[in-house]
Write a structure and sequence with these properties.
Layout lengths: L2 E6 L8 E5 L2 E4 L5 H10 L7 E5 L5 H12 L4 H6 L2 H4 L6 H5 L11 E4 L8 H5 L3 E6 L2 H14 L9 H9 L8 H9 L7 E5 H6 L1 H11 L6 H10 L2 H6 L24 H15 L11
Parallel strand pairs: 4-5, 4-6, 6-7
Antiparallel strand pairs: 1-2, 2-3
């Protein structure tokens, strides 16, 4: 594991020191050197662990809640009893590595990560743990990331949207490069232990996503149970639920196509060029509107 120290970015004073780790941008709060060393030396995956992995702001919390309620046989009371960060700990966060007992609260373990596949703890790969990975079109991802970074103290972003857009395109936001992150999981989509969820497909037909997750977790749901999960995991329900929407600005709109309210034509074309350059021939097609 190779770390390159990049110092503190004045545009992200809340993030602390920024690093480049094997080509990926990380920071002190999310996947920094101390956290990574702890994971490498102490963390051991269990064969029945379930991981929700993603690039930030691609539907992570949505997927977590879906996986959690289905994995716990639709125990909605249990899902609402504790905030998401306790029942679905964020593996590379300093909050977790300072108190690793939090991961042992429940069995089986449900764990969140924003790590690309290449930075996952080796035991997760070796034991072929189940991984659910969410993908969202990069235009909406960028807009959502901007609003989150502006409102969240762990980023405390001090710049404007054009500057954030430029940083995203230059692969200088935390967990970048976006394209490489996505493709590391996408190229493994046919593995039995990896399920890819497309954000836009979930917005269009959540019931189908519920059935896919249930099948992946080897759970059987009837039509009525599927609809119960759909109702519980609708964006409107989750936004009102303090166990899932526990930080200011964490859940904002959740819309497909919100990028049209802030992108210029030039930005849209630049992103289209980025997508063609990095994803052409991979079989991955993004949906920018519904």
């Amino acid at each position: 594991m190779q770390f390159e120290r990049l110092g503190v970015d004045p545009l992200f004073p809340g993030s602390g020191e920024v690093y480049k780790c094997n080509g990926y941008y990380l920071n002190h709060e999310h996947g920094g050197i101390v956290n990574r060393e702890w994971l490498d030396n102490n963390f051991e995956a269990c064969a029945d662990d379930v991981y929700v992995a993603s690039f930030p702001k691609t539907g992570t919390t949505w997927a977590q809640e879906l996986v959690y309620v289905i994995g716990n046989d639709l125990n909605f009371e249990k899902a609402q009893a504790l905030p998401m960060h306790l029942r679905f700990p964020y593996i590379e966060s300093r909050v977790f590595t300072k108190d690793p007992t939090k991961i042992e609260l429940f069995k089986p373990r449900f764990i969140k990560t924003h790590y690309p596949f290449s930075l996952l703890p080796q035991s997760v790969v070796d034991k072929k743990c189940k991984i659910v990975y969410t993908i969202r079109n990069p235009k909406d991802t960028l807009v959502s990331y901007f609003h989150f970074a502006t409102s969240n103290a762990l980023f405390d972003y001090q710049g404007d949207f054009p500057t954030f857009f430029k940083m995203f395109m230059e692969e200088r936001v935390v967990y970048s490069p976006f394209s490489k992150h996505i493709l590391e999981y996408w190229q493994r989509r046919n593995q039995d232990n990896i399920l890819i969820l497309m954000y836009e497909d979930m917005k269009k037909d959540l019931a189908s996503a519920v059935r896919d997750i249930a099948s992946f977790l080897e759970k059987t749901l009837n039509d009525d149970q599927v609809q119960q999960v759909v109702k519980h995991c609708s964006f409107e329900s989750m936004k009102k639920n303090p166990s899932t929407n526990y930080l200011k600005g964490f859940m904002r709109k959740g819309k497909v196509g919100d990028w049209r309210n802030i992108f210029t034509e030039e930005m849209s074309q630049q992103m289209d060029d980025y997508v063609q350059r990095h994803f052409e021939g991979t079989g991955l097609k993004f949906k920018f509107d519904l």
